[in-house]
Amino acid sequence: MAQLPSWMGLAPALALGLASLVLLLSDSIDPDTTNTPALAGISVVGSLVALASAVGFIIGGTGVPTSEGGQGTPVLFGGQLVVDQMALFFMVIVASVTALVVLASYDYVSEHSYQAEFFALVMLSATGMTLLSAANSLATAFVALELVSLPSYALVAFLKKNRGGVEAGLKYFLIGAVSSAVLAYGISLVYAATGVLRFDGIATAISSGTIQTIVDGSVQAQSGEPAVPMSILGVGILMVIGGVAFKTAAVPFHFWAPEAYEGAPAPISGFLSSASKAAGFVLAFRVFAVAFPIGDLLATGGAINWVVAFQILAIATMFIGNFAAATQEKVKRMLAYSSVGHAGYVLIGLAAVSASGEGLSFSISAGMSHLLVYGFMNTGAFLFIALAEYWGVGRRFEDYNGLGKEAPVACAAMTVFLFSLAGLPIGGGFFSKFYLFQATLNVGAWSLAAALIINSALSLFYYSRVVKAMWIEEPTGERSIDSYPMGLYTAVVGAAIVTFLLVPGFNQVSEIAFQAAQLL
C-alpha cells in the first residue's frame, strides 16, 4: 500500500471544514434559504466522508510505525499536528456524533430560520474537535479549542425566542471566556518554565531539568540554561487541569453544563455532551500522558501530582453528577447531570495510574473505549429528547407515561440507551464500564473502583424512572402523535443499533484504543 502524503492525514478535518465552507457559501448566495434537505445533506455527506476517511486510515495502519507494519505517522507543521492512532480514534467519535446530530437536525430545525448558519456552526465546531485530536502543542491545542468553543456558544443560544436558551448561551460564553483565560495563563506558565510548547519538548525539559529548544523538528537541550522552575510549572499544570476540567464538565467546573444542555436545542445538547466532551478528553490524555510524565514530575519534588488531582476530580464528579441527576424531575436536565457523572467515569483514564506511571496506557484506553460507546448512547438519548420535543411531549418524567404504546420503536431505542448508560449488558456501556473497573483494579485504586460501582447502581435508579414511565405507567392526559420525522427517527434507531452492536464488537474497539494509547 503506497504511503499517503502527510497532509492527507487531516482528511477528516478537511472534509468537515470544506462542508462548513460550502454551507457558508450557499448562505451568502441566498441568505434566506430554507432548503433544509440540501443543507442537511451537505452536512451529512461531510460527516460521513470524515468518518470513512478516519476509519480507512485506522484499518490501513496510519499512525502505526512502519517498523510495526504500519504506514507511519503523518506529522505536519513541524510537529504541531500529529495524526496518530489516538487522533484517528477520536476523529471517528467526532464524525459519528456529528453525522447523527446533523441528520436529526433535519427535522428539528425545519421550521426555524438561520438553518445554514446552524449547520455551518456544527461543522466548524466539529472541525475544531478533529484538529484538537491531532494537536501536539499547547498553542495548537488552544487555537483548536477556541474553534470548538466559539460556535458552541452560538449553538446553545440558537433558539432566539427561547429565553432559557439565550440565558444559557450567555452563561456558557462568560464562563467559557474565564476558563479560556485560565487555560491560556496556565499555558504561559508552562512555557515560562520549559521554554517550549510542543508536548514532547515539555516532557524532555522536565526529565532533563533544563530548558529545551526545537531544532529541525527535534528536541535538543540548551546547555548552560537554568533548571526548570518547578513551582511555576506546578501552578501552570494546575491551571491546565482547570481548563481541561471545564471543557469536560468535571466538578467543580460543571455548573455551566446543566444550564447549557437544558437550554440548547436537544441535538446540540447531545453534540456538546458527547463530541465536545470527547475533544476535551483527548486534549487531557495527550497533555498529561506525553507532556507531563508523572514519574519525572514526582522525581523533581516540586510539581503537582496530577494523578491525585484527577482521582479527586473523578470521585467528586461521579458522586455529584449522579446524585444531582437522581433528584431531577425533568428528563433533559437529568441527562445533563448524568453526562457530568460520565465525565467522572472517563476521568478514571487519568486517575487509575500508579505513582510511577504504571497502568497509564491501560487506563487511557479504557477511557477512550468508554467515550466511543458513550458517543452513541448519550447522543441517541438526547436525540430521543429532541423527538419527544418534536411531538410536543412535556419535559417531566410523568409526561413520558405510556409513550411506549404510541412509539414503540423509538422507546425501545431509548431503553437501550438508558440501560447501556447504566451499565447493563444490553449495550456496549456494560463492557466499557467493566474495562474502566479493570483499570482501577490494575493499579489497586480501590476508592475509584468503589465509586464506579456505587454510582453505576445509583444511575440505574434514575434511568429506570424513564423506562418505567414509557412502558409501565398509564398516560396522565391525552396525547396525539401524528407524524414520525424520518431524520430524527433514523438517527435515534441508528444510534441504538450501533450501541447494541458494540456488545459483540467492543473487543475490537478496546484493542484499537489500547494500541493507540501504547503508541502515544
From TrEMBL:
Pfam families associated with the record: Proton_antipo_M
Bilayer topology: Multi-pass membrane protein
GO MF terms held by the record: NADH dehydrogenase (ubiquinone) activity
Annotated GO CC locations: membrane
Cell location: Membrane
BP-aspect Gene Ontology terms: ATP synthesis coupled electron transport
Keywords of the record: Membrane, Transmembrane, Transmembrane helix
Domain NADH:quinone oxidoreductase/Mrp antiporter transmembrane residues, every copy: 135-458
Record's keyword annotation contains Transmembrane helix: yes
Residues spanning the membrane: 6-26, 38-59, 86-106, 118-135, 141-160, 172-193, 232-257, 278-298, 304-323, 335-355, 367-388, 409-431, 443-463, 484-503
InterPro entries assigned to the protein according to its UniProt record, in alphabetical order: NADH-Q_OxRdtase_suN/2, ND/Mrp_TM
PANTHER family hit by this protein: NADH DEHYDROGENASE
Record-linked HAMAP family: NDH1_NuoN_1
Name the record gives this protein: NADH-quinone oxidoreductase subunit N
Taxonomy of the source species: Archaea, Methanobacteriati, Methanobacteriota, Stenosarchaea group, Halobacteria
